[in-house]
Fold this sequence. Notes:
Layout: H1 2-5, H2 9-22, E1 33-34, E2 37-38, E3 43-45, H3 46-63, H4 66-84, E4 96-98, H5 109-128, H6 135-148, H7 164-172, H8 178-187, H9 189-192, E5 193-194, E6 198-200, E7 207-209, H10 210-222, H11 226-234, E8 249-251, E9 256-257, H12 264-278
Antiparallel strand pairs: 1-2, 3-4, 5-6, 6-7, 7-8, 8-9
Amino acid sequence: MALSIAGEYQGAERAYAWLASQQLQDGSWWARYEGGERSQTTRRETNFCAYVATGIWHHFLITEDRAFLERYWPVVQKAMDFVLSLQTTYGDITWALDDDDEVPVDALVTGCASIYKSLECAHNIAITLGHDTPYFEARDRLGRCLRQHPERFDRTWESKARYSMDWFYPVLTGVFSGKAARERLRARWQEFVESGLGCRCVSDQPWATIAETCELVLALLAAGDDALAREVYSWVAQWRHDDGSYWTGYQFKECVLWPDERPTWTAAAVILAADALTHHTPAAQLFTDVNLLDPGAVLAPDVVRA
Length: 306
C-alpha cells in the first residue's frame, strides 16, 4: 500500500502477483514466509488472509485500473471464502487454522477488527465488478459481535486488552464511529499515549512504537479528531533515520531505541498516516471513513494504464 501511495505501481503489483502465486488451494496463506518460501509454520491466520482485499481495493482507488481489480478478484474471493468459513454463529471469526490442531479456537479483537475493514473492501470490489456479495451481512454480524459481545474474544487465553491495537483498531476500522469512537479513545488515552513520544505497544511497558503511533493517527482521524491526529503525527519525525527509514520503537525508561531495527512495515505505516493527513491520493480516506458502496452504484469507466 505504501508503494501504491508513492506511485511505485509496478512494485506494488509485483507484491500482489507474489501473493497470488503463493495462495493455497483453500484461499489462505501460511502465517510466515522467509526468503519467499514458507517458513516453519503450519498456521494460517484469518486477518492476514482477509487483508489482501484491503490492499487490492486500496491500489484500485489510487490507480483506477479496473483490469487489475478484475485480475485479482478470484484471489480476493478465495481468501474471503477461507476467512468466512471460520465465522461462528455469534459473528466472531476464529483467529487461525493450524494443520497440527495446536491452535486454540478463539477470536482476537484486533484481528476481527482488521477483518471488518477487509470485508468492507471485499464488498466494494464485488459491487464495482458487478458481482453478488455476501460480505455485507458477514461484516454486519462481525461488527455486532465486536460491539456487543466482548465475551467472545480471548476466551481461552489471557486478555489482549493490554495491547494498544485492541484499544484503537476497532476505531481505525470503523467498528466504532462518531461519539462512541471518541469515547473509546479517550477512556484509555493515559494508559497508552506518552506525550511527545508516541503510542505504547502495550500498556504495562515503557515502549513507544512508531507503527502503532501512526495507526493511532488514523484512528484519531476516523474519530474526527483531526487536530490531535496532527499533533501525534508530529512526534514521529524524531524517530526518522538519516536514510529515510524509521526505528521500530523507543524504550523511554532506559532512553534507548529498541530493537535495533528499522523495518519496512514501520516506514509504510508512516506513509499511510501521511496520506490520510494530506489527502495525497484518492485512497487517503480508506482508513478514516466507512464507504460501503450501494449495489446500484456505477463507478467511473475502466481505466487501464499503459
